[in-house]
Amino acid sequence: MDGGQILFSYIKVWVILLLLSATFQNSKLAAKNTAQDKKRKLAADNSGFISIDCGAEKDYLDGKTGITYKTDEDFISTGKNTVVAPEYYLTIPYLGDMVNSLRTFPEGERNCYTLKPRQGKNQNYYVRAFFYYGNYDSKNQTQIMFDLYIGVNRWATVLLVLENMYGSAYYEIIHYSVTDTIYVCLENTGFGVPFINGLDLRFMNDSSYRSMNGSLIPRMQADLGSLDPTDSSMRYIDDVYDRIWRLDVNLNDSVLISTEANIDIQGSDNPCRLPVEVLRTAVQPQNGLNSLSYNYASPYKENFTPEFRVYFHFAEILEQTAPGKLREFTITLNGLKYGPFTLEYLKPLTIGPYTLQVPEYQVGFFIDATLRSDLPPILNAFEIFELWPLPDSPTNQADVDAIMAIKKAYKIDRVDWQGDPCLPLTAWFGLQCNDDNPPRIISLNLSSSQLSGNIVVSLLNLTAIKSLDLSNNELIGTVPEAFAQLPNLTILDLSENKLTGAVPHSLKEKSNSGQLQLSLDGNLDLCKMDTCENKQRSFPVLVIASVISVSVLLLLSIITIFWRLKRGRLNVSLSSSVGLSRKELSLKSKNQPFTYVEIVSITNNFQTIIGEGGFGKVYLGNLKDGCQVAVKLLSQSSRQGYKEFLAEVQLLMIVHHKNLVSLVGYCNEHENMALVYEYMANGNLKEQLLENSTNMLSWRERLQIAVDSAHGLEYLHNGCRPPIVHRDLKSSNILLTENLQAKIADFGLSKAFANEGDSHVITDAAGTPGYIDPEFQETGNLNKKSDVYSFGILLCELITGQPPIIRGPKGNTHILHWVSPLIERGDIQSIIDPRLQGVFNTNCAWKVLEIALSCVPPTSIQRPDMSDILGELKECLAMEMSSEMSKRDSVEMSLVFGTDITPNLR
Ligand SMILES: *[C@@H]1O[C@H](CO)[C@@H](O)[C@H](O)[C@H]1NC(C)=O
Ligand SMILES: *[C@@H]1O[C@H](CO)[C@@H](O)[C@H](O)[C@H]1NC(C)=O
Ligand SMILES: *[C@@H]1O[C@H](CO)[C@@H](O)[C@H](O)[C@H]1NC(C)=O
Ligand SMILES: *[C@@H]1O[C@H](CO)[C@@H](O)[C@H](O)[C@H]1NC(C)=O
Ligand SMILES: *[C@@H]1O[C@H](CO)[C@@H](O)[C@H](O)[C@H]1NC(C)=O
Ligand SMILES: *[C@@H]1O[C@H](CO)[C@@H](O)[C@H](O)[C@H]1NC(C)=O
Ligand SMILES: *[C@@H]1O[C@H](CO)[C@@H](O)[C@H](O)[C@H]1NC(C)=O
C-alpha cells in the first residue's frame, strides 16, 4: 500500500471552548436542567445514537446533556481506562462528565473502535471524537499528536497542546459509510500515546448532507443572533442530530432579532432538520443598511483545491406590521449571484448547498435586499463544510467477512487484528493484501498460532489468496478438497498438524503439475498415497516428499525475505507520511491565535523594532500579563512568503525544546501574518560577538552557548522524527535569554526529512554565505551534516570572535582560511578572541577548536553527528567548570587558611 494515499490530512479542530465561568454557571444551569430533565429523559432513548464515554465505569444518562452514554467495553478490547487529574476536572455544561474519563493506548500502533449502527451501510452518520488530556498520566505533557482514521482513511491529525485549553479538542465528520461496520482508529505516529475521551455517532436520516465523493467535515455551523451570550454552543437535545452550533459568530454591522413564535420545523421545508432554537434567532443589517456580509478563511490548507459546500438557513421571524411588505434578497457567494428569494412568515427555507472550489480557502458572501424589497435581508444560520476525500476503499467485503469468521473460529486474540484487515498503512500481522482499491487478502500466515479444531470453510472464502500457511498448529480433521478451487493459491502449508484422512486427489494433481506448493509433512495420520490401504511409506514417495519439502523451504525463505523487504518499505512510507502530515497541521490548533488588532496593541502600534529577518521586521511587544514578546510581522514584500510562514508555525508547533525559541502565538488574518515568540532579552549571538558589543561574552559563557546550541540542534536532528534540518544555522539565529541561555531560532527554512540516510536535492538557495556547506553548494544535497558544517563555523566564531567572512582591505577571507595557518603554527593565543585577554583554559580551547574543525571537512560523511559533538562540548564545559572551581576553591582555601592560621600564629 502506498503511504501517499492516506495523506490527505485536513484537520478539523474545534478547540473546545472552556467556559472559564463554567463553575459559577452551574447553579443557574442546574435549575434549567431540572426543568428540562423530563423532556430529556424522553428523548434520551434515540435509536440513531451511539454515545460512548471512553473509560467510563458504567452506562449512565448524563443530566447535563441528556445523552445516554455507554462505556466503551463493547466497542474496543484494547487500551486502558483512566481519568483526568482531579485538578483538571472539567465542568462544561454542554460536554458533561464524558470528558473526564478516557481510554489510552500505550500498546499497538493502531487501536480501533468498532461501531455497528443499526441502520447499517450506505447511510450518513455524524461522527465526533472528543479528546481532553487533563494530565491523566501526571506527566505534564505539553503536546500530544496522533492520527485519527475513519474506516481506512485519515480523518484528522489530532494535535493537543497542553498550554492551550488544557489540551482539548473535538473532531467531526459527516461520514457516508459503505460498510455496516464503521471503525474509528487511533494511530500512534510516534508523538505521544493516543487516547480518547468520547465518541459519538448519530444516524442522519436524510440526504441533505449526503456527498457522493467523500465525507463532509463541518468547518462552520453558525447559529446567528443568539440571545444568550453565556451559552457557547447548542447541541442535543435542541438539535436532533446533536450538531454543535456555534453561537459566537457575528456578522459585521448587524443587529440581532428573535421571536418566541413557533416555527414549523417538521415539514419538508426543513430538509436539514434545523432546531427551532436555531431558526428563532437571526441577524439583519443595522438601520439604513441593506446588506449582510461574511468572510470565512479556512486555516486548514492543503496542496489541492478544496471543495466547500455552503448552506444558508432562513426563516421569516418578524411579523409584518403592514401586510404586503416584501422581504426579498439575493445571495452573492464568492462573486456568483443567486436569487432573488423571498421568505414566508415562520417558514424555514434552506438555500444551497452551493458547491465551490476555492484555491484560496475563502468563502465570502453578501446577502443584499433587492431594489423592490421593502425590508432588509436577514440570515438565521449558515453552514460551511469541506468535502473530505476518501481515496481508499475498505478491504473487499467478502474477504473481510471471511477473515472475521476465521478470527472468531480460531479465537485469534491478537492486539493488532483490529479495524480493517488491510488498511490503513499496514495489514494485520500475518496478512498480506494487494494494492487493489478495494484491497484483497492475498496471503495468510497462521503458522504456530495454536489453532485447533477443523480447517474452517471460511478459509475457502478468501478467493484471492495466493499463499496460506497453517503449519505448526493442532488442526484436526480432513484436508478440504475445495482448496483446489482457489484459482490463485500457489502455496499451501498444512505441515505439522494432526490432520487425518486422505489427501484430496485434485490437490495432489495441482501439486504434481507444479501449480501448487503443497506441504503436508508432520501429519502422522494423513494418508498421502493414491491408494490409502498401505500406510507404510515407500521409498520413492519419501524422496519426492523430501525434494518437495526442500523446495518449499527454499521458496518460503525467499518469500520471507520479500516479505521483510516489503515490511521495511512500509515502515519508510509510514515515517514519510508522518512528515507530510506534520506539514498539514492546522494553524488554529496551536497556542494562542491573535487578531491583528491585538498584534497592533501588543506592539504599541509597532513602536519598537528589535530586528529584521528574511521574513520581515521583528517588534517588541507586551502581552496583557506583562510578558515581553517578540512579534515577527510578515511583510508584504518579504522574500519569504506565506508558505514559509506556515512552515515555521507548523514546525514550532511540534518542536519543543529548551534550546529552541518557542512560540507564544500567531496571527493569521488574511494578509496580516505574525508570529509571537518569547522575548529573548539578550538579542542574538551575532550582535553579542560584534566588536563594539557592550557586554563581552566570557569564555565560559561562550562554551555554555555552544553547548546550548548543540543541544537544540541535536534535538532537531535526533530528537525529532523525521529529523529536521535547520538549513540556515548562523550566529544571528542563535538568540540569548536574559541569563544568556541560547536558543535556536528561525525554522522558516527548515524542512523535515523523511529518513536519515536520505538527502534531498534542494533547488532554491538556502543558507547564508560563510555558513553554507561546500558539498551542498556543489551537489545540491542538503542533510543534517550541512547543519553540522554551519555549526562548525559557528564554533569558530565563538572561539575567535570573528565573523564567518572577515572583511579586510585586500578583500574578504573565510574564517576557515584565516584560522588554518594559525592552527598549523599552533598559535592558540592568536586564534582565541583577543578580547578574552587570555582568560580561558588552553586545553579546553584547543579541544573546542578541534571539535569545530571536525565539523567542517569538505565531505559530509567525514563530519560527526550532533550527538557526538554535544557530548564533546559538554566535556569541555565540565573541564572548564572544574578548572574554574578549583581556582575558586584554592582562593577560598587560602581565605580559610588566612582566617584559621593567622590567629594561631598570633
Ligand atoms: C508536573 O508538575 C507538577 C507541578 O508543577 C510537579 O509537581 C510534578 O513533579 C510534575 N511531574 C512531572 C512528571 O514532571
Ligand atoms: C426518517 O425520515 C422519514 C421521513 O423524513 C421518517 O418517516 C422516518 O421515520 C425517519 N426514520 C428514522 C429512523 O428516523
Ligand atoms: C464527484 O467527482 C467528480 C469528478 O471527480 C465530479 O465530476 C462530480 O461532479 C463529483 N460529484 C459530486 C456529487 O460532487
Ligand atoms: C468585517 O469587515 C471587515 C472590514 O470590511 C472585513 O475585513 C472582515 O472580514 C469582516 N468580517 C467578517 C466576519 O466578515
Ligand atoms: C509464516 O510465518 C512463519 C514464521 O513467522 C515463517 O517461518 C513462514 O515462512 C511463513 N510462511 C509463509 C508462507 O510465508
Ligand atoms: C462464504 O461465502 C459465501 C458466498 O460469498 C457465503 O454465503 C458464506 O456464508 C461464506 N461462508 C463463510 C463461512 O464465511
Ligand atoms: C488471480 O490472479 C490473476 C493474475 O494474477 C488475477 O488477474 C485474478 O484477478 C486473480 N484472481 C482473484 C480471484 O483474485
Work out the helicity level: 25-40%
* Uncertain parts: 1-45, 533-548, 564-590, 752-765, 891-906
Q: Give the tally of structural domains.
A: 6
CATH superfamily caption of the largest domain: Transferase(Phosphotransferase) domain 1
Q: What is the number of helical segments per DSSP (H or I, 4+ residues)? A: 15
The largest sheet is: 6 strands, mixed
Keywords:
single chain, Jelly Rolls, 6-stranded mixed beta sheet, 25% helix, disordered N terminus, disordered C terminus, binds 2-acetamido-2-deoxy-beta-D-glucopyranose, Ser/Thr_kinase_AS, Protein_kinase_ATP_BS, phosphoprotein
Q: How would you describe this protein?
A:
This protein is α+β, with helices and mostly antiparallel strands and 906 residues long. The protein has six domains: 34 residues; 157 residues, Galactose-binding domain-like (Jelly Rolls, Sandwich); 156 residues, Jelly Rolls; 139 residues, Ribonuclease Inhibitor (Leucine-rich repeat, LRR (right-handed beta-alpha superhelix), Alpha-Beta Horseshoe), CATH 3.80.10.10; 108 residues, Phosphorylase Kinase, domain 1; 203 residues, Orthogonal Bundle (Transferase(Phosphotransferase), domain 1). The strands form 16 sheets. Strands 35-39-40-38-37-36 form a six-stranded mixed sheet, sandwiched between helices. A five-stranded mixed sheet has the order 26-27-29-31-33. Helix 9 packs antiparallel against helix 15, helix 11 packs antiparallel against helix 14 and helix 14 runs antiparallel to helix 15. It is flat, with a radius of gyration of 34 Å. The protein starts with 21 loop residues before the first helix and ends with a helix. The N terminus and C terminus are likely disordered. It binds 2-acetamido-2-deoxy-beta-D-glucopyranose (7 copies). The site of one 2-acetamido-2-deoxy-beta-D-glucopyranose has 5 residues, from loops. It comes from Populus tomentosa.
